Fold this protein.
Amino acid sequence: MTATDEREAFPVGLDFEADAALIEGKTRQARAALDRHDDGVDCWLTFARETTATPDPSLPLLLDFGVVWPTAVVVAPEESHVVLGRHDAPNARALGVHEVHPYDESIREALSTVMERVGAERVGCNWDPDDPMADGLSHGLYRRLTDLLPDRELVSAAGYVGEVRGAKTDRERERVDAAVRTTERLLGDLREHYEPAWTERDVAEHLRGRADTLGLGTAWDRAYCPSVHAGSDGEVGHTRPGDRRVPAGELLHVDFGVRVAGYCADLQRTFYRPADGAEPPAGLREAFEAVHAAIDAGKAAIEPGIAGHEADEAARETVVDRGYDEYAHALGHQVGRHAHDGGTLLGPRWERYGTAPERPVREGEVYTVELGVDTEWGYVGGEEMVVVTDGGAAWVSEPQRELWRL
Amino acid sequence: MTATDEREAFPVGLDFEADAALIEGKTRQARAALDRHDDGVDCWLTFARETTATPDPSLPLLLDFGVVWPTAVVVAPEESHVVLGRHDAPNARALGVHEVHPYDESIREALSTVMERVGAERVGCNWDPDDPMADGLSHGLYRRLTDLLPDRELVSAAGYVGEVRGAKTDRERERVDAAVRTTERLLGDLREHYEPAWTERDVAEHLRGRADTLGLGTAWDRAYCPSVHAGSDGEVGHTRPGDRRVPAGELLHVDFGVRVAGYCADLQRTFYRPADGAEPPAGLREAFEAVHAAIDAGKAAIEPGIAGHEADEAARETVVDRGYDEYAHALGHQVGRHAHDGGTLLGPRWERYGTAPERPVREGEVYTVELGVDTEWGYVGGEEMVVVTDGGAAWVSEPQRELWRL
């Protein structure tokens, strides 16, 4: 079967319209945010070049193509503009969202004209020490901007990026949902396909192969997606799947996600390979329940307006109260165009995370809720996805409620 | 046939050893450059995070894996170090090139220790207003570095990046050569496979399909690789292939490259679809000869020590002397891990290109030499690749010497 045939036979719809309408919606969202806020920022400037090698994560929210020459997308409350090399102008016109200003030798004049047009004094730019997704402006391009726009004040647009990127539109939610349904399905099917002779690498190749036949990419770097850990004898982390197999009576842990029409899923499932058909030992069941009780507690703490660390604390206390070590990472990150989609983090107030755990949780944002504990049978890890509603949070994934048997 | 079978049957060897030896070579090259230069820079610091979304183009020269948490690679004349999250440490140890310093909550202490160890006062960092490949440090991470390293002087490492990235080692050259041989083969085979009913999109899908069956990626964004222009009735630029066909007596122009083991090719070929088997008209042959005479003149001007714009001038004069409009882009860019690989540019001194055309051409660098002219039969474009030798330049591609007939 071709990828097209596989997609048609697959129970999750995977084909979506082109990105123009989605980009139109994100641009409208950004214009509304600029209109609403009272911080003196007159426009949001995304400034990028050679996006194959040095992408700005904000650009795909605003354009459906990559660029080579320096390119500026300027969003203001009443309008939006794109200033770009003449070669790229046909793509911008085909998109039809922004007013198009092509240039030949230098971006300087056309960019100044647009800045005059929108009356920009304070210009929000894409930098943020703590949030990679709001930090797409390189330091070299920042220096170039200070030369191109000597009379404007450049400030961080991190607040806008966090808000616009985070709150998913309906068109974005459809794609996230399809990625989650697909990932759940491929992980669930592993119970039928798995063979005891399989190494971690075989498990990984099986899952990637299924994504390939559907014509889907992985949600993060293919060498680490999925991440697979077999049995109790390995280091859990961002490592490539190796040649360990699952001993009878031990665990298989998989962290996986596919990308559908530009949007990601990120889920963990823990499988038990029984010895002689036996039930999992009581200590293992307790560990599984502790992990999922903590995930439930984290989800219960999520509502618009809390700071990210509050949800982390609820989960962290739960797992520690049950006698396990606390997890060495954040409870949850946002998911969108990337598996780690930046903005507010449901994380502890550790220096590594900067201000991200202090930031507010907002309606429409999609988060993972994830943690795990080490046991003598292997790593028990759980990762679900939730969306923030007007008064709390709703599952996006269907939570794992028991160990899956291999 | 599977991709593995296709690769084995293909006349170009496409399988290379893992990247560790290549990275060891690039690290040695960087250490030697730091040792040789007398500009007071004590070490070269590459500082990156979440490299799936916000890659630093220098990182793949130094590590064979991506990272999530803030990660610092520090190269000094006598040693090299990597400071990274504990989860990523197994990958760094497996690479075996740098001394590994894992951290848990904050990079601050471990990074300071390494800076003490290498006696760093002036620290070269990855920023450059004019060179995207030397500009991987985001402005947010730059601000974070000024906080993490308050007592060090941060300066641009652009000179080092240009030198280390540009001059290809033998292991890199083998991969570039394989990418060029493969791209030439796929473009050449188009003469047999082409059908008159094909649209630009069909040509693009055919070439991408052949790369897919070999398990190879495209050298730049898949939506624009190849770039295809059929006949005289279209705009040549960074546009997606459309539904135009080649009228009899007109041209097909293709700009294409594959990536082999991380390294790219970038070539243009022009094809003529004869009307009733006729020879190309004299005016078309003259245009083709003018383009290739200019490419030859550009190549002849290349030698170590010239500034990039000197080669551009030689080619530009040649095509103008023959009565054609000058081309609206640079004569050539470097090719390596990316199709546009930064550093010195064989380009005119236009503001858009900043200082890149003023920079020196160095032995071991690989460049495109490319230009085209519009004619009544369509766009005549040529693009070859050369490597800089100790006294001049040698072809990497086999230059197109006549119009290829469809």
